[in-house]
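User: Can you help me understand a structure? I only have the sequence.
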Amino acid sequence: MSQAIPKWEPITGDLATPLGFRAAAVAAGIKKTRDALDLALIFSDSPATTAAGVFTTNRVAAAPVLLSRQNLVESRGRCRAIVVNSGNANACTGREGLHTAEETARVTAELFGIEPSQVLVASTGVIGVPLSADLILLQLPHLKESLSRENAGAVAHAILTTDTVPKTCVVRSEARGKTVHIAGIAKGAGMIHPHMATMLSFITTDVSMGERMLHNLLIAAVGDSFNRLTVDGDTSTNDTVLALASGLSEITVIPGNDSHAWFSEGLTLVCQTLARMIARDGEGASRLVTVEVVGARTPLDADRVARAIANSPLVKTALAGADPNWGRILCAAGYSGAKFDPSKVDVSVNNLPLCRNGVDAGFDEAAAHRDFDQKEILLQVDLHAGSATGRVWTCDFTRDYIDINASYRS
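Assistant: Let's start by predicting it. Here is the structure, written out as C-alpha cells:
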C-alpha cells in the first residue's frame, strides 16, 4: 500500500462484482407465496477462498448456525459455498432440522467436488416449523446450473422475509494498480437486536488474506455496525454474517501495515451501510433514527445509554408520533446503568436543543415537531461526564409493527 491510503467508493453491483464469485436463486416452495424466490446459492470459483462467520449469541441457535459454526472450524476457514433459504428458520426443529442442514451441505459438496465442511448454510423465517430437505435438495442441481455473475443480484431478493426492499452495498478501491471490491447483502426487519439480530448478511471480496485475519476484521466490522442496530429488542436464533474472500484481485491484506486499516475501513463501510438499511426498513418503521451519546464517562457508559434509548418502547412510540417528549429519552438514559449527573445532561433532536442541564430548554414546540417528523432523525445526548461516545441505529414503533407480527406465523 502507498503512504496515502486509498479510499473506498460506493458503486452499483452485487455479490458477484468481486472477482471469482457466481450466484443464483430459485423459488423452491419454502415461502407461502407461490413463485417467491426463497433459495439461493453463492459460490467461489477460487480454491484459495477463505471464509469467516459471526453468529447469534442466543442459546437457542438454529440448525444452520450450529452446522456453519462447525464447518468453519473443520475446514479451517476454507469454505467456498453458501446455501441460504428464507421462509423457514429451521430453528427448534430437533435432529430432523440438523439432518436437513447436513444434507444440504453434503449434496452441495458432491455437486462441486468439495468437502461438506466447505459448505455453509443459513436460514431465516418461521421458528419451530420443520424444513423439508426435499424442497432444497431437488433445487440444488438447478441452482448449480444457474450460477452466474448475471444471476447474482437475485440473491438479495431471495433472502427477504418481512423486508420491504432488498439491501445491497458494493464498494470499490484501488491498490497497487489493481481494482478491489467488497460486496454485501443483508436481510432483516424484525427481531433485530444485538447481538446480532434476526438478520442474515453475506459478504464477498476479491482480496487475499488468512482466515484468522478475515475473522478478526469481520468481528470488528460487525461490532461497529450490526451490533449497533436494534429494531425491537429481540435477539433471534438465526443471526448469521458470513464473509468469503477469493483472493483473485492479487492484493493481499497483511497484518500490521496500511492494508489492514484500508480493508477494515471498506468492510466496516459495507456493514454500516447495510445496518442502516435494516434500521430504515424495520417492521412498520417510518423513520431511521440514529442515537448518538457524547460526553460519557466511559465507552461502556456511552453504549449503555445509547442502547437504552434506542430500545425504549416509549421513546420509539414518541418518535412514531413526532412527539418531542425528551423526558422519555432522559428517563431511558437514567435506567441504563451508566453513571452521570442528570442535572448536566443535554438532549437535542437534529441539533435542536430540547433539554439543557436536565430541564426543558424552552424550545419551540412546532419546530421540534417538524424535526421529529422527518424520515431521518438524529437524537443526541450529551452527558457532560467525560469524552467517550457511542452510537446505535434504530427506528420508530408504529401500529404496522403489531399488525406484521400478530399474523407472522399465519
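Now, to help you interpret it: The longest strand covers residues 178-187. Residues 190-197 have pLDDT under 50 and may be disordered. Let me know which part you'd like to focus on.
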